[in-house]
Amino acid sequence: MPVLIxxxxxxxxxxxxxxxxxxxGADVAKQLGTTAEGxxxxxxxxxxxxxxxxxxxxxxxxxxxxxxxxxxxxxxxAIEEALKIIRADVLVFSHNQTGKAVAPIVAARLKAxxxxxxxxxxxxxxxxxxxxxxxSGKAFANVNITSPVKIISLNPNSYKIVExxxxxxxxxxxxxxxxxxxxxxxxxxVSGEVPLTEAEIVxxxxxxxxxxxxxxxxxxxxxVLHAATACSRPVADSHWRxxxxxxxQTGIQIAPNLYIALGISGAIQHLAGVNRSxxxxxxxxxxxxxxFKAADYGxxxxxxxxVPKLTEEIKKLHAS
Length: 320
Ligand SMILES: Cc1cc2nc3c(=O)[nH]c(=O)nc-3n(C[C@H](O)[C@H](O)[C@H](O)COP(=O)(O)OP(=O)(O)OC[C@H]3O[C@@H](n4cnc5c(N)ncnc54)[C@H](O)[C@@H]3O)c2cc1C
What we know:
Layout: E1 3-6, E2 9-10, E3 13-14, H1 16-32, E4 36-41, E5 58-62, H2 72-86, E6 90-94, H3 97-110, E7 113-118, E8 129-134, E9 139-144, E10 150-154, E11 169-172, E12 201-205, H4 216-224, E13 228-231, H5 233-237, E14 258-262, H6 268-274, E15 279-284, H7 291-294, E16 297-300, H8 303-319
Parallel strand pairs: 1-4, 1-6, 4-5, 5-11, 6-10, 7-10, 12-13, 12-14, 14-15, 15-16
Antiparallel strand pairs: 2-3, 8-9
The structure holds flavin-adenine dinucleotide (FAD).
């Protein structure tokens, strides 16, 4: 039976998190001596056959406009129906916002064991043991899934995307999606920014910025780095920045390649949302700020002095 990977998309394009899930699912399949296949609910503008380069043999598509937008209940029902035709026993999702909503419903409907927030390939030498991050990334747990159907949702940015050769076969599944109980009447899109959860680089500001009128230096640095912007919770609570930028235990949890913290103290609740970042750079005028303990690189200095200089140096690098 194949390993089946859920392909998540938005506005007609497949999300980067899905490429990670596809690469991961293909490696799980290799490990189990089987093939990997993708399942795409809805339609996208991307070339589906080219998804073969991530190691999958087939893409099953349910071409129905009602699946173009995420409705977790409808998606879960469609997956359940699809599995009556495809009969996979290992399902892989990204542990992004869609996966967090859809995968547990699928698990409940199929009475399947699920490991959410996986960070490594399963160990199949004695059972089906999946390593996941727990306690806001402070520890790992190894969980054995013993049910016949096994579901894994993969933490974004925890598995390297590998592109090889290959073309996937496209198979249209004849499934009529269930009627949704919710209707999207309007979408307010944040435009002109790199989406926080997909960003490779994030520049984040805290109370050390003193007020919203000073955010230009955060945005300028983010702009030259083609980065997304984020903030600490009090900044969002004070309406200096919108709530969708708030990262941490009670905000968005991210794992970019580079996280640059400007004037943020590094409270444990903030770290809980960013400590899976590959490299952390902290700029803070207080050498005792706790964030320095979690940082790979630190600059003790005033953000109003250091950040514009940093931005100028990066501009010069781009120009040379
Ligand atoms: C249940 C709970 C959940 C929470 N969830 C979250 C969460 O999800 N995310 C989150 O962020 N917080 C969360 N918090 C709040 C958290 O505990 C901290 O209060 C918060 O992260 C502090 O934000 P800050 O670092 O921006 O501000 P501060 O703690 O005020 O720190 C400001 C920092 O800026 C530095 N600074 C000041 N001026 C300058 C300057 N000119 N140049 C350089 N550095 C300067 C200071 O030295 C200081 O380190 C939560 C708290 C609780 C109780």
